Amino acid sequence: MKQTEGGVTAAKGFEAAAAAAAIKYKDRTDMALIYSKAPCRAAGTFTTNLVKAAPVKWDMEVVKHSEYAQAVVVNSGIANACTGAEGYGYCRETAAAAAAALDIPAEAVLVGSTGVIGMQLPMERIKKGIKELAETKNSSVENGTAAAKAIMTTDTVKKEIAVQFTLGGKEVTLGGMCKGSGMIHPNMCTMLSFLTTDAAISKELLQKALSTDIQDTYNMISVDGDTSTNDTVLLLANGQAGNPEITEENEDYHTFLSALNYVNTYLARKMAGDGEGATALFTVKVIHAESKEQAVTLSKSVITSSLTKAAIYGHDANWGRILCAMGYSGAQFDPEKVDLTFESAAGSLKIIENGVALDYSEKEASRILSEEEVIVIADVKMGDAQATAWGCDLTYDYVKINADYRS
């Protein structure tokens, strides 16, 4: 497997476009299109928040009941959440407008929205944007990147990746783009991720691969502990690579799953590191746990601790906050057996051993904690299981961004 240039247009048969529809932003693009020249098998995972945005409800129906999917239309600026029957009707109108512009069935169109909750979509602008998207779509790397930028809200950088690998002697490509910076605490699987591949794979196994992989990728990140109303991951496979169709969990399936994990891990880390106001990606690895469940619970408890996140921002090796977060996680362990180590590009430093502080240098610890990625390794000495979670530091700017978000 190798990383290649681009994102959602890297796989054969996929095109993309971006448009400035002035939905909220006056100085940038805010609509994106992903289109496949051939019908696609579609898989999806969605927010577990009881309050589900209209696009989530629409996409759940398309993924479950439509024979195939062929396009995704996304807008930023307005989330189309808590908008009632009118908001769901706008999903239908969006799909119909895209269907007419692309000459495909409306039930083959998926939709996505991100932005302010409670506002209705300006449908005339949306429809005008769709027309522009359909007219300007192509398979260039530049258009794929433009689409990745168009779906940003408080994100500071675009997030895209593509990889190539071999299935049945054929070169296969898997690409993706996502957005997410705040209201990030996925439990599904405001984050949106769109993945495209030219692999031939059955709908059942495509869904199984996605549902399996999100547990170790998107479900292991958190910026602020808020599970969005709009969380959506969509995976489209058009089979254009010409590989023998994957219909069972064989070697090709596991190769595909590995590639999917690589892409999703990359995108998940990008979202965590680009958390609103963040200055550092905060990675927590729990090792030698009794079970995977225990390791997941412990690692996620640490990355969601506001006190620990604030300490990371201050480059302060306040390890007591980490042990505290592990202690209230609900997972059982012996605090007097835990080792904690801080790592970064600046080096590695063990802080506590068997629950007791070592004679370490605060200056050295602060230097290690001053890098763009800070890693905490918690060894609980109970077994062979492990898990990794990703978050970010908590800064003054997080409050500023969210205090001013609607204005």
What does this structure look like?
This protein starts with a strand and ends with a helix. The protein has 11 helices and 15 strands. The protein has 2 domains: 2-271, 4-Layer Sandwich (L-amino peptidase D-ALA esterase/amidase), CATH 3.60.70; 281-403, Roll (Ubiquitin-like (UB roll)). 33% of the residues lie in helices and 28% in strands. With 407 residues, it is of the alpha+beta class. The model has no long low-confidence stretch (mean pLDDT 95). The protein is globular, with a radius of gyration of 22 Å. Strands 1, 2, 3, 4, 5, 6, 7, 8 and 9 form a 9-stranded mixed beta sheet that branches. A 6-stranded mixed beta sheet has the order 13-12-11-14-10-15.
List the helices and strands and how they pair.
Elements: E1 2-4, E2 14-19, E3 31-46, H1 54-65, E4 69-78, H2 84-102, E5 109-116, H3 123-136, H4 141-150, E6 159-167, E7 170-179, E8 192-197, H5 203-213, E9 232-237, H6 251-273, E10 281-289, H7 292-303, H8 306-313, H9 319-327, E11 339-344, E12 347-353, E13 356-357, H10 362-368, E14 373-379, E15 385-392, H11 396-403
Parallel strand pairs: 4-5, 8-9, 10-14
Antiparallel strand pairs: 1-6, 2-3, 3-4, 3-9, 6-7, 7-8, 10-15, 11-12, 11-14, 12-13
Helix pairs in contact: 1-2, 2-3, 5-6, 7-9
